[in-house]
Automatic annotation (TrEMBL):
This is Fibronectin type-III domain-containing protein. InterPro entries: FN3_dom, FN3_sf, Ig-like_fold, IL11/IL27_subunit_beta. The chain crosses the membrane at residues 506-527. Residues 565-591 are annotated as: Disordered. Residues 392-486 form the Fibronectin type-III domain. PROSITE patterns: FN3. The keyword Chaperone does not apply. Residues 1-20 form the signal peptide. It holds the Pfam family fn3. Keywords: Membrane, Signal, Transmembrane, Transmembrane helix. Residues 572-591 have a biased composition (Acidic residues).
Length: 648
């Protein structure tokens, strides 16, 4: 019994092994909910064998007259596509797969499905991802049946765990082919996202979509550039910062747009953060847009300015190469180009000038267009027609004025008003009362001029104007006074320079007067002395009354005159009228002296006979000499003469 039981067990095991076939139960589905879709049945074989043949069986569970049963050979494949017309899709079917290797067969377990509901969508293909800060918008195409579906979306931070969410979409209209979904994320964190979907009536989920990398929003790159100039061309190297890993997650690329004059705009997508190109001497523009999986930065425009504009070209001759290109624009202010740039691949400079406005400065480039030799042949400012400047130099000021020099400053004539190439400034200098005294040409690049050899305390008038080859523009006029040469006399008036000379004359006159006066006083004193010596014998009041007032007046005048003179010397501020008075006084004294002399000469013969008084007479002049000039003393000197006269 025991062995029998064991045999039963072994048999049972054997039967069991036969029943547990290596083929999984099949899955049959169509791609969409549309009724005419064909079905795909697929299964797996845990023990694949090159000799295995597969057949799939289908039949309705209950057997009656409308029952259905069918089988389809799959050959050696693990799937078979079955056209819908061979199937019953509206009734529950049992489906299994028979595996046959030579004459060994086994069957998978049964599944029981209603094929109409057996829909397995393709995984969503997330094509558009847009992120701005925290907000992420995902977009993918609908299934072409336009039916609403159930979606499951899952996301995680780079090293985190999945989080999920499901949502349903409504049936779509035929023109709305995209589904979009908006989610909130943390701003500075990168994520990974997957989505799957299923038809509402189906239990079959689609596969998960590919993992979508969600970097952070990308920022505008900071671009630096350097140039290396060669003859007529420049090698430009651009470089910009790489974005942080959060933003470059999933890859970064850059859209470059290169705009060069006379050339087609070039667009390029690169992955490197450097870029090199060759530009001519005129302006080049490059725009850089950084792009990552979810965003693109605002475009960054880099303007490579033209090589510094020349102020003047001395030589107008040129020769045209086989392929060339003119580029020109207004340079109205002499520095900045207008936005409108003209291009011509034919014509001559003269033809081009035809289209230019008169008196307006333009700037042109002549580029060689030959492939290997692209460079700028010429670059020059140009006028179609030149004129004379329309405005004078502005803000003309005279500074640092001294007695013989001054500095003239001005603001240059704006290029708009120059109406041509300014050759130089014409500067006229004229002194008041005279016609032109100076005429200068100042180079056009200067804005100041040192005026030398001016005369002190004079009024000068300056006229300054710009000159082009056509003519001279209007004048700016300034008048100024040079300083007086005397450092103490800051404020000067014309005619003041006459004073020093005049003062000198007056001084000489006064000194002469003084000397004459002293002499005459001394002389009159001596005479009086003599007289007193001569007349004591016959003292007569007639003589004293007649002579004394004369003497008295003279002495008083001498005192007052001397006093005035001293005062004038000390104060050094003589009043003209006062001086004249002094002069008059002095003249009066002279007259008085001559009266006195006349008087003395008349008396002379009667004086000398008495020699006794000679010694006394000689003594007094000594005293007089010692006390000379001092007003009080000279007055005292006179007193004894009077007393003597009285006493003797
Ligand atoms: C479903 O779609 C895929 C790809 O679009 C296709 O290869 C496959 O044959 C389709 N299946 C059915 C049953 O139409
Ligand atoms: C599956 O079910 C059908 C009846 O619906 C039956 O005839 C068939 O033998 C079954 N197949 C297996 C492998 O169980
Ligand atoms: C046959 O069986 C199915 C269920 O399996 C049933 O729906 C159908 O009505 C039956 N037909 C007849 C004629 O009995
Ligand atoms: C999230 O996933 C878990 C496990 O896969 C599942 O049980 C749960 O239902 C899902 N939640 C949502 C909202 O889909
Ligand atoms: C980048 O350039 C490609 C073509 O090179 C273009 O299709 C794409 O739209 C551009 N992207 C951006 C953001 O400009
Ligand atoms: C102008 O340039 C040409 C060559 O470009 C030269 O032959 C000519 O001598 C130059 N003239 C002057 C005035 O420099
Ligand atoms: C040229 O443009 C720059 C920048 O706009 C400005 O600072 C400068 O003053 C302009 N030059 C003239 C002459 O207007
Ligand atoms: C004026 O003179 C001073 C000293 O001589 C000098 O430093 C200054 O630069 C001058 N100013 C001008 C505008 O020439
Ligand atoms: C004149 O000078 C003033 C002040 O110094 C300045 O603001 C103005 O721009 C100047 N004018 C010109 C035409 O340079
Ligand atoms: C003007 O140009 C001359 C040469 O052309 C130069 O020597 C001088 O320094 C310039 N002056 C100014 C103020 O730039
Ligand atoms: C400018 O002034 C100078 C000198 O006074 C004179 O010769 C010239 O004619 C004036 N120019 C104008 C345009 O007034
Ligand atoms: C002005 O004064 C200076 C010294 O201060 C002197 O050298 C010069 O000769 C004087 N000029 C005149 C015209 O007096």
């Amino acid at each position: 019994m025991k062995t029998g039981g064991l045999l039963v067990l072994v048999f049972a095991l054997f039967v069991d092994q036969g029943a547990t076939c290596s083929v999984s139960s099949p899955q049959c589905y169509k791609n969409t909910t549309q009724p005419d879709d064909d079905f795909l049945c697929e299964w797996e074989d845990r023990d694949p064998s090159p000799d295995a043949d597969y057949t799939i069986f289908m039949k309705t569970s209950s057997l009656n007259e409308s029952s259905y049963a069918n089988q389809f050979k799959a050959g050696k494949k693990l799937s078979v596509l079955i056209p819908v017309e061979y199937l019953i899709t509206t009734r529950l079917l049992d489906i299994w797969v028979l595996r046959q290797v030579f004459d060994v067969t086994c069957s998978s377990s049964n599944i029981s499905v209603l094929l109409d509901n057996s829909v397995k969508y393709s995984p969503p293909n997330v094509q558009k991802k847009t992120r701005s800060a925290e907000k992420l918008i995902l977009r993918w195409p609908r299934v072409n049946d336009h039916k609403g579906a159930v979606h499951e979306i899952r996301w995680k931070t780079f090293n985190g765990a999945w989080q999920n969410e499901t949502f349903e979409t409504e049936d779509g209209k035929s023109n709305d082919d995209w589904i979009s979904y908006t989610m909130q994320l943390q701003e500075h964190t990168r994520y990974q996202v997957q989505i799957r979907r299923r038809a509402k009536q189906s239990l079959l989920w689609s596969d998960w979509s590919h993992i979508s990398n969600i970097p952070t929003e990308i920022q505008q790159p900071v671009v630096h550039w350097i140039e290396e100039t060669h003859r007529g061309k420049r090698e430009i190297r651009l470089k910009w910062n790489k974005p942080p890993t959060e933003a470059s997650f999933g890859g970064v690329s850059y859209n470059l747009t290169l705009i060069l004059p006379c050339k087609k705009t070039k667009r390029q997508r690169i992955r490197s953060n450097t870029y090199k190109f060759v530009a001519t001497d005129s302006e080049a523009r490059v725009t850089v847009v950084a792009i990552n999986d979810v965003s693109s930065s605002p475009s960054q425009e880099i303007i490579i300015p033209p090589v510094e504009h020349l102020k003047y070209c001395h030589n107008d001759s040129y020769s045209l190469p086989k392929h060339y290109c003119w580029e020109w624009y207004q340079l109205a202010d002499g520095e900045n180009r207008t936005s409108h740039v003209s291009i011509s691949r034919k014509n001559t400079l003269e033809d081009i000038k035809q289209g230019m406005q008169e008196y307006v400065r333009y700037y042109y480039f002549l580029h060689d267009r030959r492939k290997q030799q692209q460079h700028t042949i010429r670059a020059c400012p140009v006028y179609s027609t030149e004129g004379a400047p329309s405005s004078p130099p502005k803000n003309v000021t005279v500074v640092n004025i001294s007695y013989d020099s001054a500095v003239l400053w001005w603001s240059p004539i704006p290029v708009q008003d120059q109406h041509g190439f300014l050759m130089y400034y014409l500067l006229w200098v004229s002194k008041e009362g005279q016609t032109l005294t100076g005429h200068h040409q100042v180079p056009a690049n200067e804005t100041n001029f040192l005026l030398r050899n001016l005369e002190p305390a004079s009024s000068y008038t300056l006229n300054i104007a710009g000159k082009t080859k056509i003519g001279v523009g209007p004048n700016s006029t300034r008048t100024f006074f040079t300083l007086s040469n005397s450092s103490s006399d800051i404020e000067t008036t014309p005619g003041d320079d006459l004073l020093p000379g005049m003062r000198m004359e007056i001084m000489i006159i006064l000194i002469v007067c003084g000397v004459v006066l002293v002499c005459s006083v001394a002389l009159s004193f001596a005479i009086r002395r003599l007289r007193t010596k001569l007349f004591p014998i016959i003292p007569s009041p007639v003589i004293s009354t007649a002579a004394m007032p004369q003497m008295d007046k003279q002495v008083k005048l001498g005192c007052s005159l001397k006093q005035k003179h001293v005062t004038s010397l000390q104060e050094d501020s003589p009043d003209k009228d006062e001086e004249n008075e002094d002069e008059e006084d002095c003249v009066d004294d002279d007259e008085d002296g001559s009266h006195l002399k006349a008087f003395i000469s008349n008396d002379k013969p009667s004086f000398f006979p008495n020699p006794n008084y000679k010694g006394q007479l000689l003594r007094f002049p000594e005293t007089l000499e010692i006390t000379d000039r001092a007003q009080t003393e000279s007055c005292e000197v006179n007193t004894p003469s009077y007393t003597n006269a009285l006493f003797i």
